């Protein structure tokens, strides 16, 4: 049995220099037997709703597998209970190609676009073709565990997203014009267009939240995109957003929390001193830079590998503290655990510290579902009180001593990740 889980989807396996090792293994085995089983992956598992332009490799990959002795194929998507981007298009292509890998796929898909989308199908095809060309031109790897931000300078660049917007507008206008001639809008065609477009709405939310240049960072715009995305996902009864099981409601709540962190913080842009440096390559984020993290630990999260986070924030003046909170990322699949102990402290002079709150989190036995856990201290005081007035705040977060016994990396050093310290 062969499995393509680590292969890139930017080019066919036969033509992809990055896949020389996989290609050699299959060719070597084909000289020993003509009875190979292939387990292929055809969607993006980390983000089911990320635009995933892999349609151009489906036929040449099947032909390559057949040429090298594969007699049994398993094309894995998301399963019967899940929905992913462009599922309808991809399933139709595979159904035709698995019967006949040499079929005239251009003719088959021209018939599909016309029959499934009506006159708007030519714009759907143009969006897909443009996206595919941009992917190939960029030289970027297309991975089944990717994120929209990976393509921010390629097929999801701001200029190309504006082009997709324009083409989608033309597609909708075509259906509206058609409806005048047929005495009514075909609601099924409009729904299919909305389904096709939803992955690009998801990409816009993610790219805006990651502060990618050229995407709107205005809170009102991002929230409008987010609400539109959530509405679409509810309409299509989407059960989860990614392989690890995050529901649309959980995703919405996570992004809503991200809004609070980013725009309601007295500590933003204040000076931070780290007693232990963060660990490369996760050492470029700041605890008060206003760039809050989302469900992607690679961006806007600060990582410490086996070391304690010990940070002092200088608020610049003594102020009344109502609340202090911090988020920590949890994703044991990537060795990321909650700290075993978190302490918030306050000081007037930066030398004498008062402990405000101590947490001792439990790390549940959950391997592959990422989540963000919030730890908060709240003071029950009035605005006229001087008891909880501080200029300096300190947070100390100690990682577990080692990765626990149930994990495949038991005994290794764990990571801890945090993004912003929030003060209200």
Describe the 3D structure.
It is built from nine helices and twelve strands. The protein has 424 residues and is an alpha+beta fold. The protein has a five-stranded antiparallel beta sheet with strand order 4-6-11-8-9, with no helix packed on it. Strands 5-12-7-10 form a four-stranded antiparallel beta sheet, covered by helices on one side. Strands 1-2-3 form a three-stranded parallel beta sheet, with helices on one face. α2 (55-67) links the parallel β2 (36-41) and β3. α4 crosses α5 (121-138) and α5 packs antiparallel against α6 (158-182). The model has no long low-confidence stretch (mean pLDDT 92).
Provide a brief overview of the structure.
Helix content is 35%, strand content 20%. It is α+β, with helices and mostly antiparallel strands.
């Amino acid at each position: 049995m062969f499995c393509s889980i680590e292969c890139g989807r930017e080019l066919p396996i036969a033509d992809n220099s990055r896949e020389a090792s996989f290609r050699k293994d299959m060719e070597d085995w084909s000289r020993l037997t003509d009875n190979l089983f292939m387990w292929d992956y055809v969607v993006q598992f980390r983000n089911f709703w990320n635009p995933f332009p892999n349609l151009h490799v489906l036929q040449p990959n099947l032909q390559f597998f057949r040429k090298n002795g594969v007699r049994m194929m398993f094309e894995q998507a998301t399963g019967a209970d899940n929905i992913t981007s462009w599922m309808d298009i991809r399933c139709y292509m595979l159904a035709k190609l698995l019967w006949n890998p040499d079929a005239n796929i251009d003719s088959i898909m021209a018939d599909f676009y016309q029959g499934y989308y009506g006159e708007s199908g030519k714009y759907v095809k143009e969006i897909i073709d443009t996206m595919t060309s941009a992917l190939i031109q960029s030289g970027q790897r297309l991975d089944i565990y990717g994120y929209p931000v990976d393509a921010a300078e390629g097929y999801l660049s701001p200029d190309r997203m504006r082009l997709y917007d324009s083409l989608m507008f033309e597609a909708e206008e075509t259906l509206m014009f058609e409806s005048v001639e047929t005495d009514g809008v075909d609601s099924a065609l409009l729904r299919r267009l909305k389904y096709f477009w939803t992955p690009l709405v998801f990409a816009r939310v993610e790219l805006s939240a990651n502060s990618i240049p050229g995407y709107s960072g205005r809170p009102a715009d991002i929230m409008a995109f987010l609400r539109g995305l959530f509405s679409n996902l509810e309409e299509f009864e989407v059960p989860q957003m990614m392989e690890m099981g995050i529901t649309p409601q959980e995703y919405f709540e996570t992004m809503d929390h991200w809004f609070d962190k980013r725009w309601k913080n007295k500590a933003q842009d204040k000076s931070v001193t780290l007693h232990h440096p963060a660990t490369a390559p996760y050492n470029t984020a700041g605890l008060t830079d206003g760039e809050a993290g989302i469900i992607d630990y690679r961006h806007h999260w600060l990582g410490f590998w086996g070391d304690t986070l010990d940070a002092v924030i200088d608020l610049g003046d003594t102020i009344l503290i109502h609340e202090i909170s911090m988020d920590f990322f949890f994703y044991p699949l990537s060795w990321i655990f909650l700290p075993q102990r978190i302490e918030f402290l306050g000081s007037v002079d930066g030398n004498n510290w008062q402990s405000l709150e101590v947490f001792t989190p439990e790390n549940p036995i959950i391997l592959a579902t990422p989540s963000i856990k919030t730890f908060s201290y709240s003071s029950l005081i009035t605005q006229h009180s001087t008891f909880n007035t501080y200029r300096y705040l300190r947070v100390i977060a100690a990682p577990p001593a080692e990765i626990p016994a149930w994990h495949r990396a038991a005994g290794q050093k764990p990571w801890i990740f945090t993004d912003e310290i929030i003060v209200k």
